[in-house]
Amino acid sequence: MNPPTFDYFKYHGLGNDYLVIPPAVFGPELSPELVRALCDRHRGPGSDGVLLGPLPPEALGVSGGRGPALRIFNPDGSEGEKSGNGLRIFARYLWEHGLAPERNFSIHTKGGTVQARVLNAQGSRIAMSMGPVRFHSTVIPVTGAPREVLGETLHIAGRDWLLNAATVGNPHCVVQVEEPTEALAREIGPLLERHPWFPNRTNVQFLKVLDSHAIRIEIWERGAGYTQASGTSSCASAAVACRLGLCRSPVTVHMPGGMLEIRLDQEFQAEMEGEVRAVAAGRLAGEFLELLNLRRRNEIP
To answer: pTM of whole model > 0.85?
Structure first.
């Protein structure tokens, strides 16, 4: 196989941008130091995360699975379980590069296996079946007695907050507020992300219901910080709104970066639909790699 021309491919989903790194470039492992350098918007290509793939399903312990596996890295170097925008981006990358066997295909993640549907010839609109949204503390996880974490109150920064927790393969804390703002997400989001309630940390959404089929959220993402849009955050927030009887499926989720449509069945299986845009493909400079003491696989003697 010829070495790849480019080291990375950059896309965004509603302003939430990721770098796709094929494993043929540096191998099936990426160090936290390299991930942080890649995501640095001043000294690197810059992104909200890194997608490493396609990998064989066995790389994630999936035996006999069909479809590629994906590893997802946050800009702080930590590894995530699942990302809705990241998965749509990865699905477009596979489609564009002839790596998707058909319009419908599976992708394996640490947060479970999802199903992608390419909705147009360009691959710029993707639907993703994200699996079930669950609210039980033992699977999210949330500390304390086993329970569904819905409508609970937590005192932080001098006031009480109405919280709901969910998992879409990764943890979420949905906060019901009168008016979600970026300032609120930046102030309270980090406090909730690392609160002792959440042993694996958590993504945080500040939610306002607009009507029976629409919500608006602001997002603080675990390991990434303030984020313009998030697919799993949209799924979790829409599911919480429906679970509380405030909305009905389908739910349009409004975020600073744009809108996603979330469809939920009676078992809270979530399907997400939205756009993906290509940004760039690039090759890292030699001096960038030297700073990290890194060489491409095809350059290692």
So the answer is: yes
